[in-house]
Structures are given as C-alpha cells and as structure tokens.
Amino acid sequence: MTKQVLPLIEKIPQSIVGFLESSSYHWSSSLSKTTQAHARILKSGAQNDGYISAKLIASYSNYNCFNDADLVLQSIPDPTIYSFSSLIYALTKAKLFTQSIGVFSRMFSHGLIPDSHVLPNLFKVCAELSAFKVGKQIHCVSCVSGLDMDAFAQGSMFHMYMRCGRMGDARKVFDRMSDKDVVTCSALLCAYARKGCLEEVVRILSEMESSGIEANIVSWNGILSGFNRSGYHKEAVVMFQKIHHLGFCPDQVTVSSVLPSVGDSEMLNMGRLIHGYVIKQGLLKDKCVISAMIDMYGKSGHVYGIISLFNQFEMMEAGVCNAYITGLSRNGLVDKALEMFELFKEQKMELNVVSWTSIIAGCAQNGKDIEALELFREMQVAGVKPNHVTIPSMLPACGNIAALGHGRSTHGFAVRVHLLDNVHVGSALIDMYAKCGRINLSQIVFNMMPTKNLVCWNSLMNGFSMHGKAKEVMSIFESLMRTRLKPDFISFTSLLSACGQVGLTDEGWKYFKMMSEEYGIKPRLEHYSCMVNLLGRAGKLQEAYDLIKEMPFEPDSCVWGALLNSCRLQNNVDLAEIAAEKLFHLEPENPGTYVLLSNIYAAKGMWTEVDSIRNKMESLGLKKNPGCSWIQVKNRVYTLLAGDKSHPQIDQITEKMDEISKEMRKSGHRPNLDFALHDVEEQEQEQMLWGHSEKLAVVFGLLNTPDGTPLQVIKNLRICGDCHAVIKFISSYAGREIFIRDTNRFHHFKDGICSCGDFW
C-alpha cells in the first residue's frame, strides 16, 4: 500500500475496508454492498491503490461479476501483479479458462512477470485447454524469472504437460523436481503404463524406492488400469504378480483392473487363481468384481464359469447383467442371451445404453441380424440414446443382410448426434456400405472423415477387395504408405485377396514378400490362404500345393479349402482329392467339402464317384446346407430359401420365372445342368435350378420394386454358374443393376455383364 494513498484510506470508513476484506471470502455478503463500497472508494479517490483494487476485484468475482471486476482492473493506471492474480485466480476457479489466458496476456503486456502464486493457476488453465504452446511459453517465462524450480510451479507444470500428452516434457520436469511425491510419481507411472512402457514403469518404481517414496495401492491400480486400457494385457498381468510378490493386498479395484487383461490374454488358469483370491478375500459381493470375473470367463470361453458366477450373484445389477449377456453372446449362446434380456425387461430392470449395446452386438455377431435391427428400434422407443459404441455394433447387422435402408437411417442418426468424427463409427459405415454394394459411398464416408486411423484404411481396402477392384486397393495402399501409419496383417490380407480376385500373380508375390521383408510381419494362415487362392485361380495349382507344403505351420481348413476351390476352377481331380482328404480330417462334419468334391467329379462326368460321395454323406448323416438369400424391399428384409414353395407370392414368382426362361431360350440360352442332380429327368433338373434362392430373391425383387430400382441380394453360399448366367441375362432383360454378395465376393450385374468377368 503506497504512502501517498494512506490519507485517502483514512477517509474511507473502516466498515468498508473490513467489508472488502471479508467479502472476498464470505459468499453471504451482498453484491449491493460491494457496489456501494466501490462507489465510496471512487468518491474518496482511493481506486488507484493496488491493494484496495485487488480486494474489490476479488469481491466482484465472488458474485461472478467478472465484467465489473475486469473494469476495475482496467481502470488502474499501474496495476500490480496482485491485481491481475486476483482476477486470474477467480476466472480459473470459475472454469473460464480462455478469459484467464486473456488476462494473463494483458498482464504480460504490462511487463509483469507471473509469480509463484500466479504460475500454478496459469498452468492449470493450459492443462484444461490442452494449450501446450501457451503452457510452453509460460514455462519459458518461469525459467527467466527463476521460478521453474519452485515446488508448486513444478507440480502444476508437470501436470500441464501430462494433460497435453507431452510425456517427454513432463519427464524432464519430473527429473528436475525437488519435491516429488507419490501423487506425481503415480501420474507418471499411469501415463507410461498407458503407453505399454513396462521398463519405464519399473525404472520409476526403482527411483521411488531409492527416494523413500512408497507406491501405494492407488499407484498400483493406476498402473494396472493404464496397461489394461491400452491393450497391454501381458504387462498388466506381470505387474499384478509383482504387486502380490511385494506383499500388497489387491483390493476390488486391483482385481477389476487386471481381470480384463487376463481375459484378453485367455489366461484361464491365472483367472481361476484370481477367482480363488476373490473368494478368500470376500470380494464376491462387489458388483465390479463379479462383472469383471464374468467378462474374463466369457473371453476365455468358459461358459460354466459365466453361468455359475451369475447365478451366485443375488442382485439384478445392470453391470453384471451386461457382462452376462456379452459373455453368453461371445460364446455363441445368443438365444440364451436374448432370453435373459427379455427377462430383464419383464422385471423392469433399468437397462442402460451398455445393456442395449451388448445384446445388439451379440445378435450382429451371431447371425441374428434382423433381431439386431429390431432391438435397435426398440432401444430408441425405450428412450435410450445410442452412442459411439452402439452404432458400430449395429451397422454390421445392416451389412450382413444388405439392409441398406436401415444402414442409411443409422448413418443419418449418426449425423444428427454428431458421431461422424468418431473413427469407429466411420470405419463401421465404410464397411456397411461396401457390404451393401455401395462402395462409392464407402469412399465418400472415408474422404469426409477428419481423422483416419488404420482401421478406417483397412475397412476401405477390404471393401474394394470384396468388390474385386484390385487396382483401387493397391492405390489406397500406396496412399496409406504416404501417411505416418504402418500397414498391419489385415492390410496385407485385403491386398492379397484383391490380387486373387483378378489373378495378379506377380503383384501378389510382391506384397507377400513385402510383409516380412519391409514391415517385419510374419505371414499368417489367412495370407497363405490368399496366396493359394491366387495361384490356383491363375492355373498354378502345383505351385500352390508346393507353397502349402513349405508353410512353417500346419495349414488349416481355409488353406486346403482354397486349394480345393481352385481345383474346381481348373478341373484338377488329383489335387482335389488330396485337399478333400485333408478337409475330411480337419472338418469331418462340414458338408461343403463333400458337395464341392462331388461337383468336381460331376464336371468330369465321374458319376460313380459322385454317388460314392453322396452315400458317404448319407452314412454320416450330413446334408447339404440349404441355399438362403436375403433381399431388402421397402425397408423390410425378406428371406428366401432354395426350393421353398410356401412363399406367399410363389405363384407370381413362378409365372415371372417362366417368362424369363422363355426369353432366355429365344436368345439361345440353355440351363447349365452341371449344377443340378444328374439322376432325375431334365425337366426336373431345370425346375430345381430355378428354385435356387438367389434366383427367387431376384425375381421377388423384380415383382416388388419399381422399374429401374437396383436390387441387392445376399447369398449364404457361393453363387452357382447357372444362377450367374441367368442373373446376367435378367440385368439386361429387365434393365436392372443387380448386386449379389456370396461367400466369395461381390457380383455387380449390369447390362448383361458381371463385374467378376465370369471368373469367380
């Protein structure tokens, strides 16, 4: 307080000075008294005193009158650091962080350097705004003023860098800190754990021990949570074991943090040991522990453990029920999961967004796509708002059955709730549109995404690969390599699959070698399967067989299946029999192998062998998987089965088929009877061919959609040669674009031509 202003203060009633001092701390004082005090100060001429002005600023700030407080500050000819710090503190406390930075800038322009009281507030502001550059500048200012070694400034500076994700800068501050405590050390430990830096975690723990700082259970829980959330599951398990060896007693938070990692690592024995510990410590009544235990058993495929634990829990709690539904669905028990979900609804249990998302995801992952669509509708009717996890869980169901209308509606919903910036939502949309035959829309979604991770790139590559567009896939891969992202094994699977679709042998070999030589990715079974398919389609069956024999691990059914399918294309019986024998051993109850080998024999006119295969299937009780196709008409998905005569429109469908058949005969087309049973009359063979589900679906679409409307059909089996020829004709005859997605690829029929070039 200046000597010149002392006489003025003496003229101010002591009640006003006392009021200003007290109102800064007591919210019960009235704003009107602050205004009155301000008026008396102005009248007395004491407004230029820094001490009184600072108190007045603080008093206005207490009532959130920040504009008035700022006007007081601006009216001071030579404001002090104390005046500015009062307003900065108040604005920071009110979470008006941007305004705090503005006041700091004005303070700096007055030539005032922040002191040890202001710096912590400024660093807090930068942390909240993730304003790294401003924080760095303030750090530089603190170095000039010598305050960078102040304990409070260092602590707030450290947390600012941590919040801004600048681990390197945070570590430098940490290393220079004169007063480290367990809170600061724990923050750094958790950050390194989230990055999977096990060695750094161990190093800091060692430094803490040598400095006499003892890690507490909160520190350990933070480390475990960090490893788990970032997918470093083995590191989390190692750290849990270390905790136990050090004599700490893991609590419910510790157990709940490590169990997800145990489940993701499929370490069932470790999970059982933890289960025993949970029982011993009496933690089985904790809902978080029970949920984590059920989740662990679900990921480990231990169905009995899931059901047993759920039955032991007495309360119907949302988190536990969600884990139960997810565990059942993950292990293929989706019908049981649906049954339990309905039970939860009947019991008026409060089902949250996680509950609905869990059952929708379970249905979409287990072939219950129509049920998933219906549940998504019910969820919204129930007033539960889908989130960034629900949408990616729901969209695969739309793609699986080509429910384009539902997919577009879901896309529209994502736009309305501002979820398009989410990479998981974006990649799911890319995949959905590709599976619905609209690869151009996949490209548009990809182009509009502000941020793209590797999953987005892989989704786009896989979509174009599915459509047989190898050049586009290779172009996308080239663009990917120009980013900071590195391709993974999924990227190369899409590349090799695309090359196989169009027979690019040289390019396929190039990418196959590039995986290991340039990116250090060891080829997996799926990569060998793609290469066998590529070589086989190119007529290099012996080379494909040699590659199988050179594999560093045992080939699976996908690899041998690729060879068998290639033998069908090349009519090679000898290698087909070798591949089939391997498949009979690996999958003795898969009827597809028997049917494919039978077709190869039939193509060669080897009817005795065909009969032998059929007899073998009968003796084993195997039946050919019935053909099934799906088509969406007016936002409803219809299912058509091969040979099904019970369909409500079967008479109209048959009549339309007869019309098409006559037109085809006029143009010289004859049915390909190789794809029908050989031991029945020719007329019956033709009728059987016309009963294939994809033909029924296409004709159903012609009858129930306006002229010119594109048709989208999904088939559960590979499209046969006769159906392929018929649908090519229909696309020209009816003037329709027809998209057929079978188990191998997409077929885009237009004007009598198919995108596959009759090579599938």
From TrEMBL:
Keywords: Repeat. PPR repeats lie at residues 80-114, 150-180, 181-215, 216-250, 317-351, 352-386, 453-487, 488-523. GO terms for molecular function: RNA binding; zinc ion binding. PROSITE patterns: PPR. InterPro entries: DYW_dom, E2_motif, E_motif, PPR_At4g14850-like_plant, PPR_rpt, TPR-like_helical_dom_sf. The keyword Repeat applies. It comes from the Eukaryota. One of its GO terms (biological process) is RNA modification. Residues 668-760 form the DYW domain. The keyword Repeat applies. It holds the Pfam family Eplus_motif. Belongs to the PPR family. PCMP-H subfamily. This is (thale cress) hypothetical protein. It comes from Arabidopsis thaliana.
